[in-house]
Design goal:
Elements lengths: L2 E4 L9 E6 L7 H7 L5 H10 L5 E5 L7 E6 L6 H13 L6 E6 L7 H15 L16
Parallel strand pairs: 1-5, 2-4, 2-5
Antiparallel strand pairs: 3-4
């Protein structure tokens, strides 16, 4: 089951995170300090600005925890289906992990519907029908 935790600082037990940025990956230094354990945030901001036309940017840190951090470029003019597809694309980058920390660059209510559609797409992508799956008995060999 998918467990998305909206947090304000890094929780050591959960190493995977999604960070919502402004358009063109604009993100405040305060959010970077709270959400990432990396020391060099300036080079990270340069890397994000190089990829500013992408929908999201996946950063794998190969330190002791092998963190996976995904920055979501939250552009304003996206349709409902585009946001749901983006949520599915982003969440599929996390293989089998079920605990993911979420950080927001902005807490403005105008983005509320956008976040809802993003998380709906993410939840639908990770949903499993195993609970309702009918087991088919194997045929006996004669």
């Amino acid at each position: 089951m998918l467990n998305l935790n909206i947090v304000t600082t890094v929780q050591k037990k959960i190493i995977d995170r999604i960070i919502f940025t402004g358009e063109n990956f604009n993100v405040t230094d305060d959010i970077l300090k709270k959400s990432i354990t990396l020391k060099n945030t300036k080079s990270l901001k340069n890397l994000l600005s190089e990829n500013k036309n992408e929908n999201f940017f996946c950063l794998n840190t190969f330190n002791s925890e092998n963190e996976k951090i995904i920055f979501v470029n939250f552009k304003g003019n996206r349709s409902t289906i585009e946001l749901q597809q983006l949520g599915g694309q982003v969440i599929s980058k996390f293989k089998n992990n079920s605990d993911i920390n979420i950080f927001f660059n902005s807490e403005e209510h105008k983005y509320e519907n956008m976040f809802y559609n993003f998380f709906l797409g993410a939840t639908l992508k990770k949903y499993s029908f195993l609970k309702y799956k009918t087991s088919i008995p194997e045929k006996k060999k004669r």
